[in-house]
Amino acid sequence: MDTDDHKALREAVAALGKRHGRGSDPTQLWSEAGKLGYLGVNLPEAYGGGGGGISELSIVLEELGAAGCPLLMMVVSPAICGTVISRFGTDAQKQQWLPGLADGTRLMAFGITEPDAGSNSHRITTTARKDGTDWLLTGRKVFISGVDIADATLVVGRTEDARTGRLKPCLFIVPRDTPGFARSPIDMELNAAEKQFELTLDDVRLPADALVGDEDAGLLQLFAGLNPERIMTAAFAIGMGRHALAKAIEYARDRTVWNTPIGAHQAIAHPLAQAHIDLELARLMMQKAAALYDAGDDMGAGEAANMAKYAAGEACVKAVDQAVHTLGGNGLTREYGLAQLITAARVARIAPVSREMILNYVSHQTLGLPKSY
Hints:
Blueprint: H1 4-20, H2 26-35, H3 54-66, H4 73-88, H5 91-103, E1 108-111, E2 127-131, E3 134-145, E4 152-160, E5 167-175, E6 181-185, E7 196-206, E8 211-212, H6 219-254, H7 266-294, H8 298-327, H9 339-350, H10 355-366
Parallel strand pairs: 1-4
Antiparallel strand pairs: 2-3, 3-7, 4-5, 5-8, 6-7
């Protein structure tokens, strides 16, 4: 359940979202949210943040989504990149990046997905090799959000372990205009303010201090960013589902075709009630995951974050579908703005990890069943 502080934050962000609303300029909203301290609510106070955690940041994204104006880059810039830098970055990296990430004046993208790796992060082929004190980074990334507006991208590469010869994941900060770092937009059917890009890294030369954290930390640092990503994706989905459901409820209360509003009929009312229940249950799991992560329980948070993302994605798709169906033909009009959510809702099922891979995780890690791959 929300604490009093969480309730106050929720109400304040909901008011901000209501002032902007669906169709608002995301750049203006991002700027105002940053000035009010909402974008960096999870980052350390010493660097201009709010000193909270993913629990607070997820509230911000959920409430903006419920108001019809979610900010997708919140999942990436403060949640993934801000978290990784605040936990593992050097003092210089923290001073350089965290204040800007906290107040929204700087933006960072996150590059992990590759054309031939998909959900299998162990197949990442972007590699970094030493050249004197510098690093040379080579590879490709795909479906990377907001690279055009980000000051830098936190890229997941792999370096060779000198002792074993095996490749291990490492994280590098790559500024947008670094030579050899190219981007091309992906033509998406998804109608979103944040664009998707394919990245090409051709012997991108980076100084030694571009490496975030310990070269030997590997998966620990990577999953420090991926758990918040899953929690924030759940918040994104829950907010979207709440927005769609609110539209449907308002319509069902007023729309009268026979003698009573259509919401009086159980065939309309019950599916909306079920959608509300599913969203509330997903929110509880999201809150559990955020609480575990903020308490420092990375293992427990991993399980809960995956479950929360799965539950929220399913609940969002069902809520949007039922909302559109409730409005009938009006659900497909631009006036009501629900039809575009049909595509957007699928994102929460697909990204950042598919529901099937989450089911794999739960069956292996939680239930102890053998792997098929």
